[in-house]
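Appendix B. Raw example, untouched.
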Amino acid sequence: MLSVCIPTHHGRRPLLQEALESIAVSAAQAGTRVEVVVSDNASRDGTREMVAAFAADTPGLDVVYGRNEVDQRLGNIMRVVERASGEWCWLFGSDDTMEPEGIATVLAAIAAHPDATALALDRANFDFAMRERLEADPDRSRPGWRETTIVRSFDDIEAHLAFQHGYLGVNVVRRERWRAAAAAVGDRAVREHPDWPQLIVFAEMARRDPHWVWLPAVLVRSRAGRPYLVEGDGEAPNLLRMHVLLVDGLRDAWREIADGDRALYRRLMERSYDVAGSALVVHHLKLSPVHPPGWDRRVLVSFTRAFWFLPAFRRDALPTLLTPWRLYSRRARAGHAAAAPMEPLAPGQSRTTVTADLPARWRTREMLRIRCRVVNDGPLPLRSGTGEHPVHLAARWLDPATGAVLDVGLRAVLDGPLEPGAAADLVCFVHTPWEPGDYELRITPVQENLRWFDEVDPANGLRLAVRAEAPDLRAAAVAQSSSST
């Protein structure tokens, strides 16, 4: 009934093995057999031998291996579905891993929505070692629905789920509808959209059979440290080239998908700007350590062609793009040098009050943006700035029984000096716990390489006892089966 379809390529053998092992665990927990299809894109790293050994050692899975003797790049996504036999295909990245409850949850959703064309899932970003959780995908690139939602119109599918279609691992499709759409668009999808052919196939599916199910289940751990577009760049990726390919590819794909619908095209490009072309993105590109000659101009041309009609681009990003990168980086370094670094604070000088707008419910595997107010109750200004001891705000999760720190969140940075008696409003990015249970949440300033303020006095930070609960996604899939948007 279900085929997990994994396109892979040279250099992915050890990561693919991790993916296969995680799928075996998930299938065993679900108590069912699934087909696992590996489509090998002309690798030379021993993938064939590794998959054969895995299949021999894992009789609980039906492993199918196929090889393209010529590298077909992302056309391999088409090949992997052709090699599958299941009614449903879970398109899965060869560098991702599946959570143990993944297959059971997806099968329950399929049973609850037997007429659906596709399921769209959520994911969590991790570092290359799969140990540290990274920032979640931007809000504008993913639906905001926290419950299972049925989407039944082409415009709504594209407006809310189009960016999900760009990721492997978070799409489960009805095989025959995918194959019919792929046949309709033909090789043109790969030829004209070499980095995003799947977007064209998904759009054709949505036009033919607009019945999507959004299942807000984090069932996939995704390696976000080295995107596919710069995977071959070694240790020094050309991020400018990556963003040119990203922006040009998305612009061309959205133009074809919108097919003259100016409102839909604008919605898709606004989201693309937030994800790939905003002022913050441009700032980081200007400061990229790899800055080959000519690429600064290529970014300017690419971004201007794509985003010129957006006032936010002309106001916020374009002035930075027009600044020569050497001048911009020199100004940035001068600005950092001009900012007085924080000296180590004595314990009596580390005094703050932290208040926050906290959610009423805590669910596992989410990333929350929590609005916090920090008041400096100490005698000295607090600075994020530079140096060895800047002050940031961050969240930590502790085991309430032992006090052991289980996870440390992303840092929130002060915009400028926080003077004694002054207050600053910050957004603290908080990853909720991965597993259900009882936890203690602390949100407090930290002076880097010195101490957390609440280690001096618990009153310096916010503390909260939290019960984190995993949503019953299988029950939710059934309960929401009659809803739509």
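End of appendix B.
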